[in-house]
Amino acid sequence: MALRDVLVIGGGLVGCASAFYLAKAGAAVRVVERGDLNREASGRNAGSLHFQLEHRLIEHGDAQAEQFAQIIPLNLMAIDAWSGLEAELGVDLEIIMHGGLMLAETPEQVARLEKKYALEQRWGLPTELLDKEAVLKRAPYLSDTVMAAGYSPQEGHANPRHVTLAYARAAAKAGVIFDTKTHVKSLKRDASCWHATIKHDDGKEELLKTQTVLNAAGAWAGQIAEMANIHLPVYPVPLLMNVTEEAPPLLDHLIQHAGRKITMKQVRDGQILIGGGWSSRFHQKNGRLDYDRAPEPIHENIIGNLAVATDLVPQLKNQHLLRSWTGIASVTTDQLPILGEVPEAPDFYVATGGSGFTLGPVYARLMSELILTGGTEAQIDLYSPRRFRHINMFMG
Amino acid sequence: MIADHDTVADMVIVGAGPAGLAAIDTLGGQGLNIHVIDEQHRAGGQIYRQPPATFRVSNWMDGPLYDEGKALLRDVESRTDINWHFGTTVLGLFDADDPVKQVWLNGPDGAYTLKTRAVLIAPGCYDLPVAFPGWTLPGVMSAGGVQAFVKSQQIVPGNRFLFAGAHPLQLIVADQVLAAGGDVAAVVFSQSFREVFKALKHMSVLWRHQLKFRETAKVLGRLRKAGIPVIFNHSILNAEGQDAVTGARVVPIGEDGVIDSARARTFDCDRVAICYGFLPNSELVRQAGAHAEWDRQAGGWIIPHDRDMCSSVPDIYVAGEITGVAGAEVAAEEGRLAALGYLSRMGKNTGDSSIIQRRDIESRLKSLRGFADLLRQLSHVPQSLLDQLLSADTLICRCEGRTAADLETDLAPSPHFNTADGFKLASRFGMGLCQGRFCSHRVTQKLAQQSGLDENKVGGFSTRVPVKPVLIGDLLPK
Ligand SMILES: Cc1cc2nc3c(=O)[nH]c(=O)nc-3n(C[C@H](O)[C@H](O)[C@H](O)COP(=O)(O)OP(=O)(O)OC[C@H]3O[C@@H](n4cnc5c(N)ncnc54)[C@H](O)[C@@H]3O)c2cc1C
Fold first, then answer.
1. Closest approach of chain B CAs to the CA of A32, in angstroms?
2. Can you tell me the ipTM of this complex?
3. Which of B196, B354, B393, B462 has a CA-to-CA distance to A184 between 20 and 30 Å?
């Protein structure tokens, strides 16, 4: 008999990877995905493996940065996870961990990098602080406006087109059942288990009984939580990405910035992905934001993003912009991931938020461990949905 | 350059071919602020493609078929109340759902945007790409591409041409090549003469469109007289050559529709011109969010519209090939209809005369569409024929180097995707510079076939801005 049965909602990285680890450990797992696998954030993201404290975490002052530095243990686990992932899954995921640079172009940004560096040292993250000469030596393609950089030797990127599908294939081999083009419509709990109504593409509905639900619905995790009669403060945010045509070898690092919104990397086939948290815009429907339709790109932001990119790497001006696309990420109110069982809804687990591509494999391992053993070796209380008890204590 | 014009235009017309020209003609004299965008350097579209203004081409587009269009072109082109943007590519539409939309353009001086209340999208069609061994060799062209050279500059882009396809346009182009001093090895049609004959039995349609048939018959006569073989019931098998085309092999198609490679014969030629039909240039309007429907006969993804030619997106009108490939005359009528629809929605030109005008157009359209339907039947190519042309290493996605064999392997039944977009992400088909224009048609059909789902369920590749690649340096403020 299976150790436990788990319904995983969402066929993104978090859902597929969790399904893999759960099934490998002996659980009976079914993944329900309303569209195709890997078609939302997990297939549309920039593929950056961020291990340094990101720009968005250090730009809100020292106290906040101090708070966010607590995430570093997760990053350390992620370095481990990515280093072994291709061997673990037995496939090429285009993982490149040649190092990442976080650039500074003003004295304030340099000061910010110094503080960041101190925090990283305190938490045991192996990073370096490079002066101008050292940066330009490592990355001669950068503009000489760069004054310094934070350097993480393990940072890099992987190809989002492959990672989730590789997990899914491995999961299918381990016995996971996938229902794609299938929506979860409702979730009800009685004393012994959860009852989920799912609706297939042909209109047929099916009632599933399951001990455990793992909500891996990314930006839609809040909607799924509502089905289970709880609130989850996760917000869908519409982002924008740009990609160039295939270019000759130009960038061999993950590039980010201590004061400007940018990430850049060159993938193995030569295209350069340019992003960094520039927004796109949700369409509206009946006066509400429409999370079910691809957001619309914003012209000024495409240009804005490319302008930062070409400031830093002037040669990019000679490349063609091949396409811009949009994707929906999930952000929590406190920017920390939400990982764990919801106290008000027993056996209902959530894993979302944060840099979920970088951390997806870690979330998945933690969730599997937590669901199957009731605890985790690593300390993850900080991320528990327990911290939102105050919004769920009135939900009867 | 970012030369954002502050004022908001009334109408931006994309494409100055027959549909766009007719719309401009109809919108004239209303004091509207109209902008017209075209990638070419002069108006006319593909069919009335003009030589550059500095060129003199004698006998430019001779023949009664073109007379009406040329007159309209002369009229409209001289209009000074229109803001012309030639040599300019539309990169995309932003805020398409909003009352004020933004059109993103790349012109000779770089990129800029225009604000407008309405858009008429009439960008025509492009040749159906057909993959066969050797199709990526230099020297393999589309018949449309050959024609563009001949029309605009009387330059024959090669010496000896083999035409292969199913569309009668190849007869016309072969004739134009001959007239311009080129040589034609053969014109090869995949349908049997009997099929053509059967279709031509619809005499009423024939009679009403006798001018076109007479012209085609004359062309056929001229080709025969020049000793050019016009071969039915045959298909191209492959193009031969090391670095460029030196010949082409042609095979008979059996009763059962199966090609017989044993009976291939070789023609010496340095150009192969392919003419199997056309695909609506619907990328831009789909990027704007308009609903599209699959209609294989009409060219794939076509844009449904209401009586005023408005797409599912408010104030985005469509006309011409993107509503279903049907030729220049239908396009022109639709362009007029769109203009009238727009005017009546603006509360202009709502009197009786406009009602009569519309009725007339609609009745002409009915007859013209009958002809277009006939032409579609006549030039129908079964997908099974196109599939037979592939060998395992034939490139399907030429940008990303993905072959027919890759398509088969990547499509092996998979729980991971059943949409074209899902497939693209997993396989890289359609991710390159052409943005899927070469392979999406085939991928969508293949995926539909494989999954048993309707093409509308499988979908096409989503189109995204910029709808054509653009130099980053051109996009930035200077
Ligand atoms: C443009 C962009 C760039 C990014 N760049 C990076 C980066 O460089 N590095 C990084 O670490 N992170 C990045 N992220 C974040 C990262 O992509 C996400 O955190 C991560 O992919 C989340 O994975 P997920 O599985 O939780 O969500 P998703 O991949 O979004 O999967 C959730 C799935 O749930 C499904 N679903 C929703 N509702 C239902 C329902 N009712 N029934 C069934 N299924 C349902 C959805 O269809 C979806 O497939 C980026 C995000 C975006 C959008």
1. 11
2. 0.94
3. B462
